[in-house]
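quick one, 435 residues, struct below
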Amino acid sequence: MPSLTAVTIRPARRLAGRLRVPGDKSISHRYALLAALAEGRSHLAGYAPGADCRSTLDCLRRLGVEINEDTAAHTVVVLGRGLGQLGSPAAPLDCGNSGTTMRLLAGVLAGHAFSSRLEGDRSLSGRPMRRVIAPLERMGARIDSIDGHAPLVIHGVHGERLRAIAYTADAPSAQIKSAVLLAGLHADGVTSVAEAAQTRDHTERALEAFGAAIAHRSPGVSTVSVEGGQRLAGRTLSIPGDFSSAAYWMVGAAAMPGSRVEISDVGLNPTRTALVGVLERFGARVRVEVTGTDAGEPRGTVIVEGDRTGALAITPAEVAALIDELPAIAALAARGGEIAVHGAAELRVKESDRIATLVAGFRALGFSAEERPDGFTIRGPAGAGGVADAQGDHRMAMAFAIAALAATGPSTIEGADAVGISYPDFFDTLDRLIA
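---
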């Protein structure tokens, strides 16, 4: 799809069709990183096509990893260098817009005996990094930053391994958990991470897929542990469709009575699928069929049919399991529903301040929208249309596009090219589903 700084969305009565979304972004990052640390060749099918996952591949190449891509087939072949054997980069590592690349790679590089500099774009440079710096420094690395923000200079340990730690997360974060576990692979002893609310567990499943032994414990607090020094082996793996990308079509169908969308070969990891219950509470008909499992990651088909609109409240206890889907959930109000989200202050430190950006964009489209420190309330229906600015945030651009379908006139989404971060073909697919 050509780069588009703005797109026009015209009103539509329903969404209908069958599709497959791009490969899962979270899994793609993790498979690429672990393939680089493994011994032997890994073949990754269905690798996510967006700019974020390309940033991970580009950084790994600068660290001496041989990577071959077939972009048309979305396959990546990685020749692993082995645990602790990445090469010292000759130039800074550009993470682009990808917080996952920066935080997870920081965990990997903490265990290497050289210094490296992780940079990012303006958005990434504004996101908080102290939460990953603190545990990695406890493990023995030294990390320079600009007041807790990128660029990060990672000074790995020299002549010894990292120290294993038992880390209790201040706030649920799959990225921080993953960074600590990846550093734990390079540590002396057993490293554990405890979370009050379980976050997505793709890293744990991926570690096991590449041959690492992982211990789990959940007596009220979810804890995962990894012993350092374990050798990883190259694997042939297939990446399912990205559930967070599928969320926009699921919400679009649920918000527009008479719609029916079928999404095939999508990831159905139970730490990612809380949206299904949310849509059912809203009044949609949802059918989920698991058709297989690869490397511990279930996949299958999701069918969503719009039936009626309603009111919905997302509580603080639900936020960790829905953090990437909350912008999409806001668009459920398109035909007249009401969506209230509480306890989601974490949205303010994403690719944009997603609370402020979301509320401003929905107001511009004619919705009633209220901003709170930790959330928002959106009331539909959409108005006559307007101009909504995505502020360079891919999830904002997609949420505004779905919401704008219910307007009574055309709407413009500025910064629409941000979808290239995770879903380059989003607007082409949208055109097909409303044709």
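The first helix runs from residue 25 to 37.
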